[in-house]
Amino acid sequence: MGDLENHFGDDASVDDETNKEILAFLVKNSAETSTMQASWNFLNSIGNKDIIALSQTDYWKRKHKDIPKEIFENPKVKSISNCKACHTDIEKGLIENENIKDISDFK
Asked: pTM of the entire structure?
């Protein structure tokens, strides 16, 4: 939030009030404050590494290691960053097993 002018090659600058609101939301909903087991698993797998994408964590890699690479290239999925393609409840911060699509849906 402190360098939005250089946000992955884009200028994502917002006014000061919006910046404060977004920052407060991010802090309030961070893995450090979550009661969800998956949040702790992700957080603990980061360690001292400078990781900004869940898909770069050891936990994510371990949980997705048996999924063929082609699934992530499927037009319905598009990339490893499209969590919602498989995790239908991700927008609620949940990744419950019963709400994960079967990978055969993408073959």
From this structure: 0.71
State how far the Cα of 93 lies from the Cα of 48, in Å rounded to an integer: 24
Percent of residues in the chain assigned helix, strand, coil, to nearest 5 = 55, 5, 45
Report which secondary-structure segment, H or E, holds 20: helix 16-28
- Residue-level pLDDT at 105: 83
What are 19's two structure tokens?
């910046």
Residues 6+ apart with CB under 8 A from 23: 1
The answer to whether 87 and 80 are in contact (CB under 8 A) is no
Q: What is the pLDDT of residues 9-44, one digit of tens each?
A: 899 999 999 999 999 998 888 888 887 788 888 888
Which neighbouring-strand residues pair with 94? Answer: none
If phi > 0 it is left, if psi is from -120 to 50 it is alpha, else beta; for residue 101 that is beta
